[in-house]
Amino acid sequence: MVHVVVRLRAVLAGSVHHGSLAFAMSSQPLVLAVDLGGTKLAAGIVDDAPTLRGKAVRPTVTSDAAACLADLFACIDGLLAETQVAVQAIGVGTASMVDYARGYIVESTNLPLRDIPLRDQLQDRYGLPAAIDNDATVACIAEHRFGVARGVNDMLMLTIGTGIGGGIIARGVPYRGYSGAAAEFGHMVIDVHGPRCQGSCPNSGCLEAFVSGRALAAAARRLAAERPDSAFAAAAASGESLDGPLVTRLAQAGDGDALAVYDELGTLLGVGMTGLVNAFNPEMIVVGGAVAAAGDLLLEPARRVIAARALRPQRDQVRVVRAAFAEDAGLIGAAALAFTELLASL
């Protein structure tokens, strides 16, 4: 077993920087947070402020399960050795279907992990309590514990990136469903005749087929091909990537085509949210992820649709807001999971 209760390095200035790592002295309890995504693996030391006290980031190894897990443990070992701190628990958020009660990764679209008892592996290796959950669920817990939804008892979260993830807080606690697979909001059908969904989803017309980073990229490619005088065609001619960040940047600069793309995206998001508002009656819907960087360009059309199409009183009660956490949201979420589920008495 790797020992994690280790000597705190003496630091006269109060912090140490080494490569990509930094640790600041603190008397607060600390947890080890892990964000295991399909392209990026991050591990961090986080307190309950929340302040990120140390971080290590590397590309996720996706060749096979054994290599992926070996690299995960190597990343954690390196961070603990470098920061030389005592952590009290481990929280993991992963882009996977998770059985929270058993601590298993059940299935992953972009990771080579299936039926992996990751919670028990971490507990056995590090001798610490551990919790593992879906990355969108931990992002929801982070916003409820630390972010824009503090004090809100009933909330939903949508994380919009390559696809759409979701999270639910009901009566102040996370709701995961029977096996931990609840809140797959991206797979609500909004058009029965719509395009096939992405990844391993067998459905068609899902919300994330219309509202996602991939949908933005598809719109950028279409506009570049159809409108030779557009900013998208100019971007393609100059070798820029026709992707979501380009659409966001052009929309924020006032480009009419890009603004129209976001108006359509936000309208369709509002159609999906209308069903959620009617079904859940949340006080707040929090929207995070890379696509949410567009802010009200995305959210204002969604709010208009909810106001026009959702039922009363739900539509008059719900607030749709952008998430507080963007950069390092995965690590803050994993830390929130550990503090909420494992260290609640602190």
Structure description:
It is a single chain. By secondary structure, this protein is α/β, with parallel strands linked by helices. The chain has eleven helices and 14 strands. It has helices spanning 65-83, 118-126, 135-145, 207-210, 213-226, 231-237, 244-252, 256-280, 296-309, 314-317, 329-341, and strands spanning 15-18, 21-24, 30-36, 40-47, 52-59, 90-94, 97-99, 104-107, 130-134, 155-160, 164-170, 173-174, 284-288, 319-322. The strands form four sheets. Strands 5-4-3-6-9 form a five-stranded mixed beta sheet, sandwiched between helices. A hairpin with a 4-residue loop joins strand 4 (40-47) and strand 5. Helix 5 crosses helix 6, helix 5 (213-226) packs antiparallel against helix 8 (256-280) and helix 7 crosses helix 8 (256-280). The longest helix has 25 residues, at 256-280. The chain starts with 14 loop residues before the first strand and ends in a 5-residue tail after the last helix. Residues 2-25 have low confidence and may be disordered.
Share of helical residues: 25-40%
Write down the CATH topology of the largest domain: Nucleotidyltransferase, domain 5
Tell me the series of helices and strands, N- to C-terminal: EEEEEHEEEHEHEEEHHHHHEHHEH
Count of extended strands? 14
Number of domains: 2
Poorly predicted sequence stretches spanning 5 or more consecutive residues: 2-25
| Widest sheet, order of strands | 5-4-3-6-9
CATH architecture type of the largest domain:
2-Layer Sandwich
The major sheet is characterized as: 5 strands, mixed
Beta content comes to 15-25%
The total of helices stands at 11
The computed structural class is alpha/beta
What's the Cα radius of gyration?
A: 21 Å
CATH class of the largest domain: Alpha Beta
Q: Which term fits the overall shape?
A: globular
